[in-house]
Amino acid sequence: MPDTKNIDLSSQSTLAKLQEVDSELAIQEAHLLSQLESLQEKRSSLKTVISLFTADDRSLVRKQEEVIVTPQEKPSLISEPEVEGEQEPDTPALAATVPTAKTTKSKKAASSLRNSKKVPPSKRSTKVSKDASEWQQYIREDYEKASLTQAVTSVLQSQTERVWGISDILNEMFGEDLPQAVESKLRHQVSNVLGGGARENKWYRGQPGSYSFSKKASEKG
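Now predict its structure.
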């Protein structure tokens, strides 16, 4: 009869390998999702910039039309019949003010265009920080000033001999009252951070989905 013990060991080894492959695929999926979100944010920012340029171009054209019309209207206001013996009106001084008005409006239009180009970076930074704000409102006070990578590192360092699962890390950082949608997204992000840190030898990977600062502990776990 076949050795039942050897068959069980072989099955466990195969299962462990399959679970590890599944964990790696989950990390890759999280990475691709992160890249997709980044591309969507960049595209949205680009659309915002395009709309601003379109609006500013229309505004600049209207202002330039006003500047062109204004000097043509003003000379009719200063025409007066000449009276013998009276001093001629000081028309050069008045005429000199007309180009000044035109120059001032042109400068304002150019300044408005330059200022509008400075708007998109602030909008991009707001969108970049939107994902972070979704989970930072749930994080515990001990980690509220840290980035997600820093928070994960702090958790692993708090008990260097412990083997941590992703669920353990999430509970340590956020407690057990996370909304399901936020928890699902965070699980992918934390998995991505853990996988990247293990590849850079910042910590060690044990069983699928388990990590530790101790190489010895990770091998046992």
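The CA atoms of residues 18 and 208 lie 9 Å apart.
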